[in-house]
Amino acid sequence: MKRHVIEMLVIDEPGVMNRITGMFSRRGYNIDTITVGKTQKQGVSKIVFTLEADDETLYQVEKQCDKLLDVIEIRELPENSSFFREMCLAKFLVEKKDKEKIEGYVKKYGFEIISSGQNYIVIEMMAEPEKIGEFLKEMSNFKIEDISRTGITGISTR
Hints:
Blueprint: E1 2-11, H1 16-27, E2 33-38, E3 44-53, H2 55-67, E4 71-76, E5 82-93, H3 99-109, E6 112-116, E7 120-127, H4 129-138, E8 143-149, E9 153-156
């Protein structure tokens, strides 16, 4: 099983997400991440979702989604010709003595501290999901009070 990033163009109207996620639920497929946004075309939204699946499951997902009337187009984004990003905001509880060390990690990864108080730091991360994962692993000695991740979005160069 491997991670697949799927891009779907859909009609932008109420109930579309419910029909798509309902189809996933009925068939026992699990969506790992999902992002949705309007496109440059009026009335069309783009959904980017990820799932761990073998080739047969991926084929079934694409086939089932393509049957939905709301779906205009569906395709897998190829890893070798696509860019993937995720945004993450994380609030760490920290002691004063650890702030300099954390600032070093933030600088090393090219992220940004967007808020800092006496006992906390909020870090903004925008990067490939793997890089965010590496950073969070490196920061595992510090207590995360809250975290918010957008999920993966992507765009193909083809």
